[in-house]
Design a protein that fits this description.
Elements lengths: L3 E5 L3 H13 L3 E5 L2 H10 L4 E5 L7 H10 L8 E5 L4 H9 L4 E4 L4 H15 L8 E3 L2 E4 L4 E4 L2 E2 L4 H12 L4 E2 L1 H9 L8 H14 L8 E4 L3 E4 L15
Parallel strand pairs: 1-2, 1-3, 3-4, 4-5
Antiparallel strand pairs: 6-7, 7-8, 8-9, 10-12, 11-12
Helix pairs in contact: 6-7, 6-8
This protein binds calcium ion (CA).
Length: 240
């Protein structure tokens, strides 16, 4: 449930170093030694972020990044380029094709993790390993726990992902199909009413905290997570 990071790097020692440090930071990783293998992995399931080495055998990292950016399905995956090059012109080229950040080798694992955290926080906050806390409701992606005060809230995996997404995007209304895309992920074909089932379970799990009302049904539009109470105009608060 933690963010899955695809490492595309041909040097085994660097891959191992990154895998180890990602694991320590609470991220899952998957490795490819070249662009072709990376493509096969992406075909099966989209990663949350790609660490992409600039110099790879066959297709270079920069060409691979271009391919990813041109493809509708992959164009929004955050990319951090890894490179031994330090020239400013290369950095500009990397950012121009749409890399979201740039780390120069040799890098300290700590710096790399800080950059990954920053990019995820900015682009897909629900995939970052950062703790989210809203008025005492606390979700910790590293140990996978949701607590209210000092009591733990038991959640199923889908409810956990749904809550993580909603707590990371408060005040905005998401339609059922948007929630399916963002929480269930791509390559998933499920009915929209599945969302309602999991929303119901999530509310039930939160009931004893009194915070179940933070998951608001917005009639005809979808759902919103908000700690700001809604006072219904006509006294009813029925589900749509
Ligand atoms: Ca390389």
């Amino acid at each position: 449930m933690s963010a899955k990071i695809l490492i595309v790097e041909d040097e085994a020692a660097i891959r191992e170093l990154i895998v180890y440090n990602l694991q320590q930071a609470g991220y899952e990783s998957i490795c490819a030694e070249d662009a072709e293998k990376a493509m096969a992995i992406i075909h099966d399931a989209l990663p949350d972020l790609i660490l992409l080495d600039w110099l790879l055998p066959n297709m270079t990292g920069i060409d691979f990044a271009r391919v990813l950016r041109r493809n509708e399905r992959t164009r929004l995956i955050p990319i951090i380029m890894l490179t031994a090059r330090t020239q400013e012109a290369d950095k500009v080229a990397g950012l121009e094709i749409g890399a979201d950040d740039y780390v120069t080798k040799p890098f300290s694992p700590r710096e790399l993790i800080a950059r990954i955290n920053a990019v995820l926080r900015r682009l897909i906050p629900e995939a970052s390993a950062q703790v989210v806390e809203i008025h005492g409701l606390r979700l910790d992606p590293v140990n996978h726990r949701v607590t209210d005060g000092n009591r733990e809230i038991a959640l199923g995996p889908t409810e956990y992902r749904l809550l993580h997404f909603m707590m990371s995007h408060t005040e905005r209304v998401y339609s059922r199909s948007q929630l399916l895309d963002r929480v269930w992920g791509d390559h998933v074909f499920v009915e929209e009413r599945t969302v309602d089932v999991h929303i119901r379970r999530l509310r039930k799990a939160l009931q004893w905290t009194g915070k179940d009302s933070w998951i608001q049904t917005v009639r005809g539009a979808g759902y919103r997570f908000s700690a700001v109470a809604v006072v219904p105009a006509n006294g009813s608060n029925k589900e749509i």
